[in-house]
Prior knowledge:
globular; 74% helix; mainly alpha; disordered C terminus
Amino acid sequence: MGNRVSLPTVALVAVMVMWSSSFVVIRGIGEHVSPAAMAEGRLLAASVVLLTWWGWRFRGRLVATIPRGTTLLLLVGYGAMWFAIYTVLVNAAEQHLDAGTTALLVNIAPIVVAVLAGVFLREGFPPLLMVGIAVSFAGAAIIALSGPGRHDRIGVALAIAAALLYGISVIAQKLVLAKTDPLTATALGCAVGAIVLAPYALTLIRELTAAPVGSTVGVVYLGLAPTAAGFLLWAYALAHTPAGLSISASYAVPALSIAGSWIFLSEGPGTAGLVGGALCLAGVAIARLKYVRADKPTVRPPRPTRDPLTTSRQPVGSSGLLRF
């Protein structure tokens, strides 16, 4: 029984560390690699790993795993919006903001998801959701109005735009996962993102040629660790832990990003940024209170016997309310 608890927990911790480190790496190499080129390099590296895994896992029946019709259109849509444009926006935001502040702002995405679910999935708008929205956006306003420099308004706008795209894409992916396994949805979505940003491949080569070797290492790391390994481990952890616990782990990402930024880059949010960021996360927590209460009496399901990466599942968090 110990292994059942420890292995998913280790996987979840590894995911949080990798996803938080991505904000630090993006900020660190942003001086040498432009946002779109960095995103393309990241997606190319991740696509190699994910498509190889996908091809091996479904060898002999690849065509049968590719979704059709509306499901395929939704997959292409979130592949372009989430893997490509979202990644570019986060990279661009970190041209203006430190890693910790960007992570804090992007983590309002669960509220965006809740709002969209209320509109399109008819889940309603409970009072706590509305309070959470107000608190989170008050926090974003404090960050935006706290002064020039790292907290400039362009960076805040880019980070919030990234969170909005994130939310839209989560709803699309949730619909895709109802008919497609997580590995196929992730591998093909990542490949779509790489194709969308293909025009920046030459820019990537040119910039990495002129940049320090560390920049190339950073781009490859972003693709292999936070994207490829991160998603695979996330699917495993999610399949073996309660969804509420897995999603709640998102609160660790901004804290780890701030710590990493201070340690490796000697920068971080100022007092106003920390206060605003704390309000952003508090708003998310308030908006999710009803879900936390609903999860408490739920009996933990038995350990699945099928491969969580290739089995179509749709728990609350299957849409990946974390992606960096």
